[in-house]
Amino acid sequence: MKATVLVRLKTEVLDPQGDAVRRALEKLGFQGVRGVRVGKLIEIEIDEAHENAPDLAVRLQKMADEMLANPVIEDYEVKL
């Protein structure tokens, strides 16, 4: 089984990397791009012995809170 954690900067946090990508796209001729936000996608493979654990969702949330994301400046979404 594979779990996915999508991490994005909160909307109120400036995204200089996203701004750099937007400017680069414009220079490459891609007009009309108003904004870009850069995030990260983390895939976690769960072994068969643990994929039906009743606390799996809670454990994944804890992983995201404690290591995969910075909850002060980032939002995240966990998908199983």
Explain what this protein looks like in three dimensions.
The protein is of the alpha+beta class and 80 residues long. The chain has a single domain (2-79), classed as 2-Layer Sandwich (Mth169, Chain: A). 31% of the residues lie in helices and 25% in strands. It has 2 helices and 3 strands; from the N terminus they run E-H-E-H-E. The chain has a 3-stranded antiparallel sheet with strand order 2-1-3, covered by helices on one side. 6% of the residues are buried. The mean pLDDT is 96.
Key traits:
single chain, 80 residues, alpha+beta, Mth169, Chain: A, three-stranded antiparallel beta sheet, elongated
SSE arrangement:
Elements (H helix, E strand, L loop, with lengths): L1 E8 L6 H12 L12 E6 L10 H13 L5 E6 L1
Antiparallel strand pairs: 1-2, 1-3
